[in-house]
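Kindly inspect this one:
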Amino acid sequence: MTIDEAVFERHSVRSYTSKPLTKEQIEELQSRITNLNESFALHMQLVLNDDVAFSGRLAHYGSFKNVTNYIAVAGQKSVAGCEASLDERSGYAVANLVILAQMLGLNTCVVGLTFKKSSTIEINDDEKLELVIAIGFGETQGVQHAMKPATRIAPDYDSAPDWFKKGIDYVMLAPSALNQFKAKFTVDENGHVFAKARFAPFAKVDLGIFKYFFELGAGKEIFRRSMQTLRSSDVI
């Protein structure tokens, strides 16, 4: 499966089978997590066979079923020399992982609230647990929910260059921590893209997710600065 195929085939899945992840899948995920942790000063952890995080009232409210494998997304609240917030760094890494999981034949769901912290998750004093990613073999492959209009996050979508439109098209297929799209993308006459998070819970996490998907659609080579040096108001 290609990255582009993964973008279109990925859907959030909340109900999973008891089939365990394969050794190869675990190794691929662990390797990517290690690389992302180093790149973005994160402390993400793949947790297997844990029935605590998605047990109880919160998981029932979120309609989760049989989630025993997940990736805990945590990290340092501030990092010297890095202007991107923990929220945004986490979101960017999360997007990378859900695409990898899809390419490995797994299903995922990005979860911002409807889980509880398990003692299995390691959190240092200078770190914060941002969210988790449910992961495994879904009972189904999920479905594409009704799409919001692209102009909701890109007001000038209709008159924008084709590469920008393709980036936004990919963003509209991205996951969201709370199933919301509280972001705004614009492009100026020089082809510089600006992305801002609107005021809402997990909006900056979603902004990091959206930036990753935008780059997949539009092509990262068009951007003049890397994710690691961004503020939410900066050029992508």
Observations:
- The longest strand covers residues 127-136.
- The first helix runs from residue 3 to 9.
- Strands lie at 45-47, 70-76, 107-111, 127-136, 183-187, 193-197.
- The chain is about 30% helix and 15% strand.
